[in-house]
Amino acid sequence: MTRGINIKKLEADLWESADLLRAGSKLTSNQYCMPVLGLIFLRYAYSRFKLVETEILKNRPMRNGKPLPVEASDFAEKSALYLPREAQYVYLVNLPANISSQNLKSIDGNVMNSLGEVVNNAMRLVEMQSEQLKGVLPKDYTIFSDELLSELLRIFNNNALDDVGGDVIGRIYEYFLNKFAKNIASDDGVFFTPKPLVKMIVNILEPKSGVLLDPACGSGGMFVQTGDFVNAAGMVANNTMTFYGQEKVEYNAQLCLMNMAVHGLTGVIKSGDEANTFYHDAHNLNGCCDYVMANPPFNVDKVKSESTSAAGRLPFGLPSVNKAKEIGNANYLWISYFYSYLNEKGRAGFVMASSATDSQGKDKDIREQLIKTGHVDVIISVANNFFYTKSLPCSLWFFDKGKSDALKEKVLFIDSRNYYTQVDRTLNEWSDWQLKNLNAIVWLYRGETEKYQNLLKEYHETLSDDRPFAEIVAELSKTVQEKRTEAKETVETAERREKKSIQAKYDEEIAALEERLTIAKEADWLYEKFGEGEYRDILGLCRIEERSVILERGCSLTPGAYVGVAPTEDDGVNFAERMAEIHQELLCLQAESNDLMDTISKNMKELGV
């Protein structure tokens, strides 16, 4: 829940900043969106800079009793962006109010007389550190007054940006689009990919080296998560991976480059009309990619069929074309592209509208051809409310052209619609442990038992307890309940002035216990199903199905059609008796309501109303 709270705090700050912008300028939402994102970029870059700087200084050689100063090359090795002093957020935040009295000079040697000029200069300094950022960062801060800009810098100087990991710029961008530019947010079904979905795609594809393409790259979340995955494996992402992206919307492409830069990643991102994937293979990568990852816009219509056909990458032919020579739903265009871009051993993972697993007509014909290749690997159903601004369910699809012979005739189906963590009323996600558990099912399907067993070890080490997980859950559940009872009794008997501090102390202890209990429950969830590491089909969760059976069943790739429905636990309540009780309660409530209405009516008459 902590992560959700941090995001809520961030949203509130963003809303405040937007109000300030609206009050202090006559800019449209599109115009003021990018300058604010530029400030958030600087703040996040500084947070990462300080983190990496601390790491570098740990083993820094000494000279005259002092560590050698850090250099830009040190940061490049750590996949982070180096920030000169004048581009560091803390420098900008702490500048005095009267800029003109400071005799500050820009990189051109000109005296700067406003905070806007100083921030513009900071952006230019950052662009000098990264070839791919040249001309990307906003540099129009002189349109704001110094007072307004200073207040914006202060607003984004908070700890929430340190706590929210991953594609933070993309998440913030999504917030702006949703709040102030809904006309763009709803354009062509474009919306930000939640971090858990991105992590699941990367974790299952396990990128190590080679060419990665995201032909609908948005703000670059797939690249960032891949970089983290490769670096965590002890390699340097920029040395082993080559990143290519296509993004039709210029704003999104700028955000992608900013996001990659702050994570120290380099890549080639093309944007605008030449990067419209329906009509262009902008990087000429057809058949060349080791990995394809994407969250394409769902259910796009009015795609010109002739232009699409001329652009190629359609190994299974065109989807349905209407009388206007347009494709009414482009989902299977995307699916065909993802497959076509792969080389002979390539893997693809992407988000897709749930309807695509079972759509009919030409879609079904394409799906049948796909299944016959033997390269469909894993399909995962995802619950509602994973997207930040959309409530729709979706599926994750995985192709693997390098599948082992043992798996060539099989597809793994996972239905995770009942397995998630609720962040708040409108947002669900997978926790890190839930991500690992779902990933573990894929490991077992692939015969990678050692990875599964290492996860069990990780659970035991995290819990600092080698007992069976069920025992740990039982004991922690009992301890939590006892601690709650103790807290209630202690607070009730405490003196009034001490109640608040005592309650806070207990809340902290209970929260720590509940976190351990949550981890133990996830461990028990996994162990109960797969023991020491033997894959089993689990009713309502997962099933390995033969390709021949899928073809016989009309080529459906909907996980629910194969995994079935898990049996519901009997709660011991007699349905007929309970319904009779509810009916009686309802009659009593209606009678009370009628009496109350009579009383109100009588009182109104007495008052002469």
User: What is the count of structural domains?
Assistant: 4
- What is the number of beta strands? 17
Average of the residue pLDDT scores: 87
Please, how many helices?
A: 23
Structural class: alpha/beta
Q: Tell me the Rg in angstroms.
A: 28 Å
Based on Cα principal axes, name the global outline: globular
Major sheet: order of its strands?
7-6-5-8-11-13-12-14-17
How far is the N terminus from the C terminus?
52 Å
Description:
The chain is built from 23 helices and 17 strands. It has a 9-stranded mixed β-sheet with strand order 7-6-5-8-11-13-12-14-17. It has a two-stranded antiparallel ribbon with strand order 1-2. It has 609 residues and is α/β, with parallel strands linked by helices. The longest helix has 35 residues, at 496-530. It has helices at 2-24, 29-58, 72-77, 89-93, 115-128, 146-155, 160-163, 168-180, 182-185, 195-205, 221-232, 237-240, 250-262, 305-311, 331-341, 362-373, 432-445, 449-463, 469-493, 496-530, 547-552, 560-563, 575-606; strands spanning 62-63, 66-67, 104-105, 111-112, 210-214, 241-247, 267-271, 289-294, 303-304, 326-327, 342-353, 376-382, 394-400, 410-415, 421-424, 427-429, 542-546. It is globular, with a radius of gyration of 28 Å. The two termini are 52 Å apart. It has 4 domains: 2-164, Ferritin (Up-down Bundle); 173-418, Vaccinia Virus protein VP39 (Rossmann fold); 458-539; 574-609.
Please describe the structure with a list of short key phrases separated by commas or semicolons.
609 residues, 51% helix, Ferritin, 4 domains, alpha/beta, two-stranded antiparallel ribbon, Rossmann fold, 13% strand, 9-stranded mixed sheet
